[in-house]
Amino acid sequence: MKILFFILLLISSSSFAQNQDLREWIDQQYQISIQKLFANLSPNGTLPGTVVASPQKENPDYWYHWVRDAALVVDVVLSLENTENINSKEFLFDFVEVTRINQNRSGFDGLGEPKYYVNGDPYDGPWGRPQNDGPALRAIVLIKLANKLLDKGQFRWVQENLYRAELPANTVIKKDLEYVLHKWRDASFDLWEEIKGQNFYTRMVQRLALYEGAELAKRMNDPQAAIEYRNQAKSIEASLVNHRTTGKAYLFENLYWEEGLNYKHSGLDTSSLLAFLHTDDSFFSLSITDSLLLATIRELEKAFYNEYEINKVQYNGDQKLGVAFGRYPEDLYYNGNPWFLTTLAVAEHHLRLAKLLKSKSVIQIDDLNRDFYSDLLGIPYNLATTDKLAEKSMEYTKVLDRLEEKAFEYFARVRFHAGQDGRLWEQFDRNTGFMLSAYDLTWSYAAFITAYQALVNYERAQ
Ligand code: NOJ
Ligand code: NOJ
Fold first, then answer.
1. In this structure, which residue's CA is closest to atom 8 in ligand 1?
2. How far is the CA of 192 from the centre of ligand 2 (A)?
3. Residue 279's closest CA among 191, 354, 338?
């Protein structure tokens, strides 16, 4: 008996040490991610305000300012101003200037141009155009900047440089909003730059841009625009139902195919999750608790588990490794591999969900989320006929614990494949686990930072 007790103690203390070790690594990786992300802002040889997707210039050449990547990265820069006291004022103003230059030079498809040379000119080779998530994402982040400046009383500067109530639009935010307003129904290429059609991710960010845009329009004395933006945001919202009612028990990302890759049959795509992470806001009834989203994550996890050989490696020492997520199961880019930013997205989701559930008192179980919660609870629990988990019940607590534990497992997966020095490339090989494609992908670091922020917010909420 005594011996058994001793052994149990040993096991649990070693897993405690494991966790602590992992937690320390996460802190360290967060600092490295900040450094590496900042290194890709206005690097030598670029117009100040440029965000290179990666410093890599060949195979693949990512030495461009991608509208989508840049907006997502600048969003992180803004958030770090609040939490880390990093003053990025100069960079942010340069980013506004790069945006102005990009918009004025434009490209084959106007503001739908997905990427720019580092001197501000639009890319002029063949590419999947237009990509209409770009202007929406850019508007979202610039609106955050505008609101921040307005809160500090800088109305004039905002009016001069970001949003002025006039048509044709002459300011960066207003231009992007007008583009979204008039073009959202048009087919465009998805965020992976592969399929032209109607894409859930694009619609979700367009919807948020117009909602936020309506609020900003009010602040900038543009009431008529506020009404229009809001009305169209509602129409976009209504159109989202198409992605929810395809007869599949998950979100269907790409609809009404017009052009591009034609082998994405499942419709399953981690970008549906990114859509929620990048738009979680107060205007909407959909949130990261959405049952269909939970069903989608579960389906993705099963698919990626089966798809990637590397997912059969489930432990690093005693440390359990979460399933590595890719973009979508049929992916063939670099042979189709797991990505850091998609795996981190699941960690972020679980932590944000856990934090939210902490503040709620019941979890409603329905036919769409039942399997997700059952999987978390594991064998002894049976949710087959349950319709809710009550506050303080064993089940409720276990769900929170498991979400946290799983989030750590995804972090451990990232650690397992990351460079010794904390470097994150775009992907890691589906068979060998070694990193590949673009090194120091700025978006990978941004994804680590937002996942980390979700972790800290969750911990603070205890
Ligand atoms: C380059 C794009 O950036 C990537 O997303 C895509 O998968 C490949 N082209 C193949 O179309
Ligand atoms: C390929 C990805 O699919 C796309 O989303 C991204 O914008 C570019 N790489 C640049 O990072």
1. 333
2. 6
3. 191
Q: What is the pLDDT of residues 86-136, one digit of tens each?
A: 989 999 999 999 999 999 997 787 999 999 999 999 999 999 999 999 999
Tokens (6 digits) for 319? 């440390």
Two tokens at 40?
């890709």
Backbone angles phi, psi at 47, to 5 degrees: -65, 130
From the CB of 192, is ligand 2 less than 6 Å away? Answer: yes
Q: Counting atoms of ligand 2 from 1, which one is nearest the CA of 53?
A: 11
Ligand 1 pocket check for 193: Cβ under 6 Å: yes
Give bridge partners of residue 260 from the DSSP assignment. 195
pLDDT number for residue 9: 46
Q: Distances from the Cα of 419 to the Cαs of 403, 409, 433, 440, in angstroms? A: 26, 18, 11, 10
b/e string for 447-456 if b means 16 or more Cβ within 10 A? Answer: bbbbbbbbbe
Q: How far apart are CA 248 and CA 149, in angstroms?
A: 44
Identify whether the C-beta of residue 459 lies closer than 8 Å to the C-beta of residue 407. no
* Burial degree of 124 (CB within 10 A; 0-12, 13-18, 19+): exposed
Distance CA 72, CA 172 (A): 17
* Residue with token string 């720019």: 116
- The tokens 């989030």 sit on which residue? 407
Element (H, E) at 362: strand 362-364
Hunting for tokens 């590949």 — which residue is that? 436
pLDDT by residue (tens digit) across 237-292?
999 999 999 999 999 999 999 999 999 999 999 999 999 999 977 677 678 999 99
| Residue 69, ligand 1, Cβ within 6 A | no
Distance of CA 147 to the CA centre of its chain: 22
Q: What is the largest CA-CA distance in the chain?
A: 81
Give the closest residue to 412 by CA, choosing from 17, 19, 12: 19
Please, which residues bridge with residue 134 across strands? none
- Tens of pLDDT along 401-442? 999 999 999 999 999 999 999 999 999 999 999 999 999 999
